[in-house]
Design brief:
Blueprint: H1 3-18, H2 22-35, H3 40-52, H4 56-69, H5 74-85, H6 93-107, H7 112-128, H8 132-148, H9 153-167, H10 176-191, H11 199-212, H12 219-232, H13 238-250, H14 255-267, H15 272-284, H16 288-301, H17 306-318, H18 322-336, H19 344-361, H20 364-375, H21 384-396, H22 400-413, H23 418-430, H24 434-447, H25 452-465, H26 467-471, H27 473-486, H28 491-504, H29 508-521, H30 526-538, H31 542-555, H32 562-574, H33 578-591, H34 596-609, H35 612-625, H36 630-642, H37 646-659, H38 664-668
Helix pairs in contact: 1-2, 1-3, 2-3, 3-4, 3-5, 4-5, 5-6, 6-7, 7-8, 8-9, 8-10, 9-10, 10-11, 11-12, 12-13, 13-14, 13-15, 14-15, 15-16, 15-17, 16-17, 17-18, 17-19, 18-19, 19-20, 19-21, 20-21, 21-22, 21-23, 22-23, 23-24, 24-25, 25-27, 27-28, 28-29, 29-30, 30-31, 31-32, 32-33, 33-34, ...
InterPro entries: Ski3/TTC37, TPR-like_helical_dom_sf, TPR_rpt
Pfam families: TPR_16, TPR_19, TPR_6, TPR_8
Organism: Leptocoma aspasia
Length: about 675
């Protein structure tokens, strides 16, 4: 076959392909290859025809042969790209990307439009495969090409925006290089925006700031973006809110942060981050109740802020709302499980704070939960303060051996740690080894004098050690006063002061004041509430006694606050108000249905009201619960007599006289 014949055969093959006669085309090409086995065009045409005849392997082989012969010729690469783009081609995306890369190289110095088309296809392919770094780098090449061609600012702006769109999901599995390219795209998009910023630009700024807030190390860039947006949109609270939340989450509570919180609240008094910021400011100024109020309100509006939940837990701990503090720690831990991954520092802090709070609750269940929380702290075993907390949790759970082991290890490894000496003190105190407990608490106070709990326990140690230390003003009293001064929310310290003034100093008025304060701080403290009521009555201040009882009974849930219902019921009984007495004594019995004295008092109230049958039932119930209550048995007999049940009455009187021969009312009856 001569050169002329080869050319004629290739022309025939081209015409056959144009007429969709692919088999005919293959015949012509094979004839050419018999003569010239390295004929580039023949191999390309075979690839084309075989692809149309659904023979992909033969097509691929032909194109690759052509590429081997002429690696920098376009036709075979274009054919291979078309083949790989067919929907029936699977597992070829990696090969197709390589083909596109080669086509970009070949088009670069020639057809710019085709270069851009291939570039778009390559980016789309990488995007499907979630290869975000390759997406970013390839798209940047496209933008550079457009810049070199002198593209308009508006076109470049759209290209940068498209890059942001392509990379917006990349922050979930962020590698730093892709992240930086995304942030750069935002900056270029904002720089190339219209000189008169519109709503699009506003949304772009919002997205940029939101994106920056996911990068913990881009603090300076975040602050700059927020300030730039505030300068452009001075009435918008969004950038300030992000900045405030950033300060809260980073734990940076500088003057700058405080200024941000104030400025945001001036702009929008209902802003969640602003109210949270104000709450944190109150916490730092030791205004704990205001802190709890503001943080609670702020978190109702902006609840996905782990750090704010922890500040709330801290404020709740300061005012001894321990169960609420545990709930806040749990909320913080829930908020920390986010797609961005947990913030280890906050997570460790949340577990530690939760454990401290549970230890203050001081029952076995809370201790078990505290142990679990402490075990979750990463590297907690190497932290001596965490170890001391673990020792306290074991002690609360009654695991004395484990607590003692931790105590001994800490005293050897950290002899200057106040918590180590305090743990030893708690262990001695629980075993009533008061002399050793005194030494331990004194050692703890020497190292950390500002801890109210240490002074309180030293005071209790003196209280139970001996009558001398109990009565010695410089011992128990001094320590209770120091504890109350260091922690004005520590209700138990005021209760112990009340005990001292009532039982040792005989100062009922001062004791009553201490009990009232203790009860104001902790309304679940029945001992203080009862003592405050009793002393108020003794001091003739019935108004104070009733105001305490009224406050408790108004807030009480059914079946609770027995002591308050009982005290008020007895007051009504003494002051001739039997109907009110009946209602209160019934409420007391709902809390404790087995209190025989309460049943006896209820019988008395019914009797005074003239409800004889119900009074009889109440007295009988009292004597069933406690057969030693002679007065109740006598009252039952007297009522049977009034109701005309004489035989029953006689039998009941005789029952009393068997036990107590000279019980005059029964003889009379």
């Amino acid at each position: 076959m001569s050169n002329k014949e080869v050319k004629a055969a290739l022309k025939s093959a081209r015409d056959a392909i144009r007429n969709k006669e692919y088999k005919e085309a293959l015949k012509h090409c094979k004839a050419v290859l018999k003569q010239e086995k390295n004929n580039y065009n023949a191999w390309v045409f075979i690839g084309l025809a075989a692809a149309e005849l659904e023979q992909p392997d033969q097509a691929k082989g032909a194109y690759k042969k052509a590429i081997e012969l002429e690696p920098n010729q376009l036709l075979a690469w274009q054919g291979l790209a078309n083949l790989y783009e067919k929907p029936n081609q699977i597992d070829v995306k990696g090969d197709l990307a390589d083909v596109y890369q080669k086509l970009l190289e070949l088009y670069e110095s020639g057809d710019k439009q085709k270069w851009c088309d291939v570039c778009n296809k390559l980016v789309e392919l990488y995007h499907q495969e979630k290869k975000y770094l390759e997406v970013a780098e390839t798209w940047q090449k496209l933008i550079r090409m457009k810049q070199e061609e002198g593209a308009e600012k508006a076109e470049l702006h759209q290209l940068w925006k498209k890059m942001i769109q392509l990379l917006k999901d990349s922050t979930r599995n962020q590698d730093n290089k892709t992240g930086q390219l995304l942030l750069t795209a935002f900056e270029h998009a904002l720089q190339s925006a219209d000189t008169v910023p519109g709503e699009d630009n506003q949304n772009l700024y919002k997205d940029f700031i939101q994106c920056l807030s996911k990068f913990p190390h881009e603090v300076a860039r975040l602050e700059k973006a927020c300030h730039d947006m505030m300068a452009l949109y001075p009435t918008m609270s969004y950038p300030l809110e992000v900045l405030c939340l950033h300060f809260v989450q980073s734990g940076t509570l500088s003057e700058k942060a405080m200024h941000c919180f104030s400025r945001l609240l001036e702009m929008d008094t209902n802003s969640g981050p602003g109210i949270i910021g104000f709450g944190i400011k109150c916490l730092k100024e030791n205004k704990y109740k205001e802190a709890v109020k503001s943080l609670t309100e702020g978190l109702q509006k902006t609840n996905q802020c782990p750090a704010a939940w922890l500040y709330l837990a801290e404020a709740q701990m300061k005012i001894h709302e321990h169960r609420n503090a545990v709930l806040s720690c749990n909320q913080a831990l829930e908020a920390l499980v986010t797609p961005e991954g947990p913030n280890l520092r906050w997570k460790n802090l949340a577990f530690q704070l939760k454990a401290e709070t549970l230890i203050k609750i001081a029952d076995a269940d809370a201790a078990e939960e505290a142990i679990k929380a402490l075990e979750q702290i990463v590297d907690g075993r190497s932290d001596p303060v965490v170890s001391a907390l673990m020792g306290q949790a074991y002690l609360n759970k009654g695991l004395m051996d484990q607590a003692s082991k931790i105590s001994q290890e800490l005293l050897l490894s950290h002899p200057d740690l106040a918590e180590a000496h305090a743990l030893e003190g708690f262990i001695h105190y629980s075993q009533k080894n008061y002399e050793q407990a005194e030494k331990s608490f004194l050692n703890a106070i020497e190292r950390k004098a500002g801890t109210a709990e240490y002074h309180q326990y030293l005071g209790l140690t003196y209280w139970f050690m001996s009558d001398e230390t109990k009565k010695d003003k410089g011992k128990a009293l001094t320590q209770f006063l120091k504890a109350a001064k260091l922690d004005s929310y520590l209700g138990s310290a005021f209760c112990y002061l009340g005990n001292y003034y009532r039982d040792i100093a005989g100062d009922k008025s001062r004791a009553c004041g201490c009990y009232k304060k203790a009860f104001e701080l902790d309304e679940t403290d029945e001992e203080s509430g009862t003592a405050a009521v009793n002393l108020s009555v003794e001091l003739g201040d019935m108004d104070t006694a009733l105001s305490i009882l009224n406050e408790v009974t108004e807030k009480a849930r059914p079946g609770t606050a027995k002591w308050a219902w009982l005290h008020r019921g007895l007051h009504y009984l003494r002051t001739g108000q039997p109907s009110q007495a009946v209602a209160d004594l019934q409420a007391a019995l709902r809390a404790d249905p087995k209190d025989s004295n309460c049943w006896e008092s209820l019988g008395e109230a019914y009797l005074n009201r003239g409800s004889y049958s119900t009074a009889l039932k109440s007295f009988r119930k009292a004597s069933e619960l406690n057969p030693g209550l002679v007065y109740s048995i006598y009252r039952a007999a007297a009522l049977e007599q009034i109701l005309g049940k004489y035989e029953n009455a006689i039998a009941t009187y005789q029952q009393i006289l068997k036990k107590t021969e000279d019980y005059v009312p029964a003889l009379k009856g």
